[in-house]
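Anyone able to model this chain together with S-adenosylmethionine?
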Amino acid sequence: MNVDLGLRYDQNTSRRVGSLNDGLLAKRSFPTWHFAMMNDVSRTQAIEHSIRDAGVTGKTVFEIGTGAGLTAMLFARQGARHIYTCEVDRQLYDVAREAIRMNGLEKRITIFPASSTEIVEGGGIDVVPDVVFTETLDCGVVGEGFFSIASDIHRIAGPDTIILPSLVVQYGYLVNSDDIRGLNVAHNHSDLDLSPINGHSTSSYYPVRLPAHASRSLSSPCQVRKYSYGEPQNATATFRTAAYRDGMCHGLLSYFHAFYGNHVISNDIRDGGHWHQAFHPLATPFLVKAGHVYGFNLGDDGSLSVAETKES
Ligand SMILES: C[S@@+](CC[C@H](N)C(=O)[O-])C[C@H]1O[C@@H](n2cnc3c(N)ncnc32)[C@H](O)[C@@H]1O
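re: yes, here you go
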């Protein structure tokens, strides 16, 4: 059995439930990936350097998603006057509050056991923040609630508020991989028709560690979507790409670059961070031909569908 204990994603309910392990260890309400995330040095350094470059001395910060308190405390260390931060997971809220107390930062950091929407709608903060920060990105960008968080940020930010990240760019390429498709579609066995379970296959995207699977790229990486917290968008995105190889296209492998100022956090395979990459399956795989151009829709839930096919 291939059980991944470190998922940073739950395909139906965003990433609040992280892995099988979390279900078994019912004492903990938050997923296993928090540990790997906190040990992802390139992620932490990018965040730390972006805070340094933003020049936060004397500024007021609103952070969405405290986690265990790491980023709120980095803002305090870099001289922010006050940090307001909110965390929906009650157990993590307790963890972060304890870490903030242990580090003597409780007068500089106010933590709310609440979602960003509750804070924005309930008026928990009575100032326009100088900086809004969030790192609530799952492997396919949107699974942890990108659009509702973007809408919350839009409501709370002023015209001069610095938003970190300013932009998230998602890239992807077409992939042939029976192996990756097999993570989401059950095959029949010994003439037994097992197809009913496939009515429950993931239609949006699921996490994969690309090097663990046999796969072939069918196109060059291209930009598939841009996300901006400052300008919420709710339309399906479209992108076009040319195949450079003949083959059965099973879906799109995507990864993102999130720009925290000039610093990037990414689940790009070349960066070796803690994140998985995202695989967006096609409901019906189809044969692509080298040199032909294909258009795709990428829905707000990350679901992929074919929009156009034409010969170049
Ligand atoms: C990826 S962790 C990042 C934690 C911390 N900011 C860091 O970078 O180390 C994101 C956290 O945001 C929380 N979260 C997600 N959506 C939220 C929301 N809308 N409001 C408050 N917390 C949220 C999750 O429970 C999770 O603990």
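Confidence is low (pLDDT under 50) at residues 1-20.
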